[in-house]
Queue: 4 jobs
Job 1
Amino acid sequence: MTDLLFPEDTLARRIAAYENTAKANEGLHALFTAQTDRIAYLKRHRDWVEKNRWGMGDRAFHYMWMLILADAAARFPSLDLLEIGVFKGQTISLWALITRELGLNASITAISPFEGNLKPQPRLLHSLRKKLDPTYREANAVGNLHAIDDYLARNREIFTAFDLDFGGVKAIKGFSNAPEITAQVSNETFALVYIDGDHTLEVARSDIATYAPLVRAGGYLIMDDAACFLPGETFWKGFESVSKACEDIPALGFTNVINIGHNRIFQKNGS
């Protein structure tokens, strides 16, 4: 099965064969990286992201997302998707691209500040603040510092680059743990929720507690930057804070069915 390519390859087949071992995790990450480059539109999107420095993540995730979206589309009559923490729009534009290429109808909701929090500053000042300011030091350590910018405009740029319609995205501007933000989706359900927001333990746990219950039975909760306690050494593991927050997920009715690099995929129990 290792050399199968979509559509013969499926998420269900990968889950059935999965073992949480160093060999399996490293092998899947390497294989999914190669599979991304074998599908022209996935490769083109990831090449654009890397060339333009439009976000982080791994090349392997492009193929991962194709398998997840195809599986979710087969499970549910509507493909409603939610991302927490959007940055420049790499993931939501990829969702839009994949669903267009596969002929799927998707509804995308994106929750993010869309503005950044780091003013331009000399390198020396940055170093001093890391040394003297514990709050700043933690924010830097967990990847929570982003240059101030109009990230709604950046999202539109990547959508435009691939002839996609950002106007169809429900973009909710604000922090994921703010009551006025959570209220806007509290009565909705989603085929999948992707959490890639604030990486502190407190907020990661809050995001899980708030948004995991919105996943439909049989749907998926995907946690980014969450593999610090998993076996495997050839891929970046993410942050200990987010990895620890994932310990809360099984009690909410989810099973960790497969992991690709630092992305952990949990499926909500039930049909």
Job 2
Amino acid sequence: MTFEQNLSMLFSDLNIPEVFISEYMCNANGDYVKIYLYCLFLCKYGSEVSPLDLSKRLCLPLKTVEQGLKYWEENHVLVKQQSTYTLADLKKVEVEKLYKPKLTSSVEDAIEANTKNVMRNQIINTINNTFFQGVMSPAWYTDIDNLFTKYQFDEHVMYSLFKYCFDRQALHKKYLYAVAEGWASNNIKTADDLDKYYTEYEKVSQIKKTIGKKLGLSRKLSQYEDSYVDKWVIEYGYPMEAIELALKKTTSKTNPSFDYIDKIITNWHERNLSTVDDISAFLKEQKQKQKEIKVMETGKPSIPKYSDTQTNQYNDLTKFYANV
């Protein structure tokens, strides 16, 4: 006995996993979402189609279709086997993420740990309502729990982390974890640590702009130039006034490099010259020594050059006989 459902396409529905919307759609290109939805539709009817057919049917360039298929492959939404594409079971994928041993804690464990701390629970609810419109995916609860455990962030820092990524339109896990790693490398754990970091960051940013202006650069500093300035300000602790003394020493150079400036400033640091007064006194002393060396060089008795005046006189026979 066989039962069949006789419904035309007009009355059929396409089921889209909500986890696709919460975990994948928000970070994907609009054309890629379009490709996924149509592939989901084709899978329902077991249709065969080529990338070229997709390009024509969706009114998209063939290159865009190929890039979209590759994007969903890389995000494990599509699984390619030779010429066949299979749509992954996204619900199963997320469950495996949640319950994968030693890498993440389960949703239940995360919620249980969070309820022990009222403030933490409030922050998570605030993150959910502020950045996810109250429909945050269960996987995010686990990630937040992991972030608290791994980096020891307090609640204020955790909220600031999500806000930082949200404001930059990059609220996805890869970017969020990268920022978290950066903050942790700067020893940020508390609200005070974060405020201090932002203050230092603004200070360094202003110094970088000033250096670029004084050097007449019409561009932003490169990554390598940035690292030099970070070293001078953060590691060595030099203010802009001290760095400017080094910049003044480049006036005789046609194209002064940051490497040249770095050698000057590093030399000061190695000499334990920690303040502008220390550096100024050192430069004054060096200038005085150069003057003394110059005076010593110019004060040496000069050796008279050999003159052939007498020889010339002997060549003049009239003068020779006149002296006889």
Job 3
Amino acid sequence: MTPQALLADLVALNDLPGAPNARMASYVQAHLARLGVDCAALPGPEGDRVNLFATIGPRDVPGYILSGHMDVVPVEGQVWDSDPFRLRVEDGRLYGRGTTDMKGYLACMLAMVPEFQAMALRRPIHLAFSYDEEIGCRGVGHMIARLPELCAPPLGCIVGEPSNLQPVLSHKGKQAVELRIEGRAAHSSQPDLGMNAIYPAAEILLFIRDLAARLAADGPFDPRFQPAHSTVVAGVVQGGAAVNIIPDQCTIQMEVRSVPGQVPQDITAQVITRLAALPQVRVSHGELSSYPALPPPKDRALADLLESLTGKSALQSVSYGTEAGLFHAAGVPSIICGPGSITRAHRPDEYITEAELQGCCAVLRRLGNHAAG
């Protein structure tokens, strides 16, 4: 099947993060089975979601992982010019949810399998399909933990997030956390009988603001990123039910993005310490998502290979995060390189072009030739 035909099928499978992904996983497994490729289904702890891992070539030789996530972000609240879960072709553009982020890459991976099989690969090419990436890279870690039983230690992992097929070397780490403050409700005419949860929440918000200012002023700094320092922001605040009720609860959702060398959890810990010191209220917190930074490589072998395959110089860093940081943390050299532009991701009328799919297949073909050489 062509990449475009595969992409049409994949777009129609609107498996969303945080939900069962049996339809998407079954489609990928069935496609690979028709080509004679075994595909391991690796259930996550949720019980209704799986990662997938398949190999073309010898398993006992170090090779390369092509990695992409199967889930897509929702379309609620967005106005599309056509059904987002039905591929629309117009003037060389292929419109649909996930076309760029990142089912275009998955379609190219699957479309290239027959060519990989015909190449008599000396080094294997592994196909890795993960779940729940869009809600904090929650699924891929379970697959990474099982890599030792699936393949020899890989030479590298190419995470196909949209980068205009330009290799990307690094990104920041991230942790998102929800902070919860519980007070005591009362009638607003007698506020002394209650404990207003919004007021201590305001203290935490000011602490987060001041912490962000300290990070901007004191660093640490890494000029490869913009901004060149770690950041912390409060993004969502919810509290109160009515103006005449003393609010008994308030929640804050905050996010840290850290430069390589600084762990996001260390920054979050400062906020949690301040939260725990609030008097007269009950507090708790829970992690929403996290992934480590992808630091610039010390060994340029994978970067040099991708530069030769794409004909493009590597980009030092990007502002978005990926599963590459998790592969790197597990000892797998990792790089980002995929078709399409991140500027189209998560937006109405998301699209990828036919030329971008063809370009991605050409890069993967060169990788296959390299692995066969």
Job 4
Amino acid sequence: MTMVAILVCANFTSCSDDDDDSTFDGGSKIPTNTIYYETTDKIELRLKNEDVFGGAELKNNTYSTTNGYGILEFDSEVTAIESGAFENEKTLSSITLPNSVATIEDFAFSLCSNLESAILGNRVEKIGYSAFDACNLTSINIPSSVTKIGEGAFQRNNNLTQIHISDITAWCKLNFDYCAVNPLYIAHNLYLNGKLVTDLVIPGNAKEIKNYAFNYCTSLTSVTIGDGVTTIGSSAFEECTGLTNLTIGNGVTKIGEQAFGSSNIESIYVKSKTPAELSWVFNDYTLQNATLYVPKGSLATYKNAYGWQEFENIKEF
């Protein structure tokens, strides 16, 4: 191993090591029985509890001042970062987890006030309650394997400005309990495979956009929803203040409350001749100023449909 391997990986850049046996979304490789870390004082962490890694027993904890990183080595693969495992470790500045980790439990990295970089393995399914509360993250990569992000998981990360994902469909499946649970509430900027998302296209294989999925994603300027989507959740695009253009696929049958609230949309293209069920979806600015384009032959239907009839400007296309 070299200093370059750990430090470059912490910036989501591809790196490799032929001796390693697990691969991250970003391309880095480390064995499944190890965790890499860095500290501000360049010495090894003094873990408060060594029995919080999914049954794996810690064998070695070493820190190389020459290479500039530490290694936690276990007797078996690490499957979990259990509750409070690194909580309040003030010197911890970066962490790199192996792919074998499936869960990051409540408070796992809470109050690690100098933690600026966290590389999660690509099999993580759960990020628990307050898992990274009050850290100092500037960006975070959410693997497509994640199905649950707990309340307050990324709260009080005041410098967080980038959320990185690799799969829009997987992100649409995440159901946030309320707006502040979504890390976009803080970061505002969503990156897909390293590129800032401004013109969002929801692919046809997505069936539903869950509640608060893109809430507070202010980088969005246009959204195109694929024909496979049937339901758009409540507040899914609320507070996307830069959103001006919207296309809704012909499969959408229901749009949740405030799905596009606080978005100053200028044009909406609806592909279905049958109006989707909705109530309190758009704000007054959109209803008064946007042009709603509906399929040829469906103008009268939309003008008489509940919710849609509130648009002042409806045209066929």
